[in-house]
Design brief:
The protein has 81 residues and is an alpha+beta fold. The protein has one domain (6-80). 32% of the residues lie in helices and 36% in strands. The protein contains 3 helices and 5 strands; from the N terminus they run ααβαββββ. β3 (52-57) and β4 (63-69) form a beta hairpin.
């Protein structure tokens, strides 16, 4: 099965993980940041293809996406659908 987004996603993963982003750094760059347990409290995860996670915000049912870095694992940059 061919994935037309694979090359772009691989480049995004490489760029995101090139510099270890602290929570403070990510908050300054992207606003709200969640660790795994915080993400699970605020969102239902609908699917993912690194570095993007498709989510549904529990408070209002808004679907959207967040990005994540691998280590330390933080999610950030919620974009409504």
């Amino acid at each position: 099965m061919s994935d037309p987004t694979e090359t772009v996603r691989r480049q995004m993963v490489k760029q995101i993980n090139a510099v270890e982003g602290s929570r403070e750094y990510l908050e300054a760059e992207h606003g709200d940041v969640w660790d795994t347990s915080e993400l699970q409290q605020e969102f239902d995860v609908l699917g993912f293809m690194a570095p993007v996670v498709v989510v549904c915000r529990k408070s209002d049912g808004m679907k959207g996406s967040v990005m994540f870095q691998h280590s330390p694992r933080f999610y950030f940059g919620f974009q409504p659908e």
